[in-house]
Amino acid sequence: MKLKKNIAVSENGFLFDPHSGESYSLNKTAQLIVKLISEGKTEVEIMNSIMKKYDVESSALQRYLDDFIMMLHQMNLLEKEDN
Amino acid sequence: MKKLKLTIAVTGLNNTDNPGPGIPVIRGIRDSKEIEARIIGLAYENLEPGIYMPQMLDKTYMIPYPSSGIEAYMERIEEIHKKDPINLIIPNLDAELYTFMKAEPRLKELGIRTFVPTLEQFEERHKANLETYGKKYGIKVPKSMILTGHHDIQKIQDEFEYPVLVKGKFYDAYIAYNPEQVVNHYNKITAKWGLPIIIQEFIKGTEVNVVALGDGKGNTVAAVPMRKLFITDKGKAWSGITLADEEMIRITNHLISKTKWRGGMELEMIKTNKNEYYMIEINPRIPAWVYLAVGAGQNIPEALVKLAMGEKVKPFETYKVGKMFIRYSWDLLGNIDEFEQLSIFGEIEK
């Protein structure tokens, strides 16, 4: 999982996609997930980081994270995976 | 560096909610460090806001509409030129381009330069010819069909799936979901702009645009892609942002190199969810949002002036991504004597 080239996220959680001109406001959790994705972390590593920080059940988190990643794909913010 | 001292005449001063490109073009020229211009406005109506905007024009002359015929039009230009010699005219409106292309040799004789597309370049990119154009130059375009009368409307369903776009030859475009809506739009457009009506396949996606400048030899001198962020009810950009889109630049370069386009242009494309680009329109002039390109680092009006004057221009290679523009409305205050000057004498010195 990789963020598309040139996508910028400010410290305030403002994400700008220079390919589409779209911009998004991320909440703190979304900001953290996007940061972890940009650091090249896997889904499991992202889950572990979030569970360390927040009191959340792994099954619920898995669901939310899958939804969020799907949303990032739909918004064309992630590189397409080959498989 | 020695500055180019020029008198430049500009049209399209209608800075309304359907803005002409005149004022943004002038702003680009005024921003230039290489050009020292006396700028003459050529206005069709005495309430075109650009006439009254501070620091834009040095002088304004009223001119007749191009529909009054090339003779009347050129007579007025010659009259102005005798009083106030012009080096270059930048026509900014679709409806006057044909006149300027036809009049190019005559203007040249008078010592007035222009930098407009050739008649062939202008004619072949018409909305009505877009499909042939796409095939000739290898660009994707939506399927289209020409309507010359009501009797053609029934044929639409054999060729297209609804919805379709109903377009006028020069202006206006509406979406129609059934034949009844086509009839409505057909009547509205023909009443205003006449025939033909163009039916275009509706391509789902995001509209994106490029402002570009071709040197007439196949080189792209400038190209900046943009997406409209806010659109008025007339379909005009009220806000926009520059994009990092290599494919749009590639398509622009390809088209300019194949057509050897001369002058400013605006390419209107639809980008689909599958990242395909369909050209929906090619406007043969600088668009009203050109000042965004100036702000992003490509002063297209300056480059156009230099090309017109036979100066060498180095093509721009970069621009700032994420540069935005937002239009606004502002009440200018004027005095009745300015309006009187224009109405009685057809000219005004600022």
Describe the structure.
The complex is a heterodimer of chains A (83) and B (350). Chain A has one domain (8-74). Helices cover 47% and strands 10% of the residues of chain A. Chain A is built from three helices and three strands. In chain A, strands 1-2-3 form a three-stranded antiparallel sheet, covered by helices on one side. In chain A, a hairpin with a 6-residue loop joins strand 2 and strand 3 (23-25). Chain B is of the alpha+beta class and 350 residues long. Among the domains of chain B are: 4-115 and 331-349, Rossmann fold (3-Layer(aba) Sandwich), CATH 3.40.50; 143-201, ATP-grasp fold, A domain (Dna Ligase, domain 1). Chain B has helices at 22-31, 49-52, 70-83, 94-102, 104-110, 119-124, 130-137, 156-159, 179-193, 246-259, 290-295, 300-308, 336-345; strands spanning 4-10, 35-43, 59-62, 88-90, 144-147, 164-168, 173-176, 197-201, 206-215, 220-231, 237-242, 262-271, 277-283, 324-326, 347-349. In chain B, the strands form three sheets. In chain B, strands 13-12-9-10-11-14 form a six-stranded antiparallel sheet. Chain B has a five-stranded mixed sheet with strand order 4-1-2-3-15. A four-stranded antiparallel sheet of chain B has the order 5-8-6-7, covered by helices on one side. The model of chain B has no long low-confidence stretch (mean pLDDT 95). Chain A binds chain B through residues 6, 16, 18-21, and chain B through 206, 226-227, 229, 240-245, 321-322.
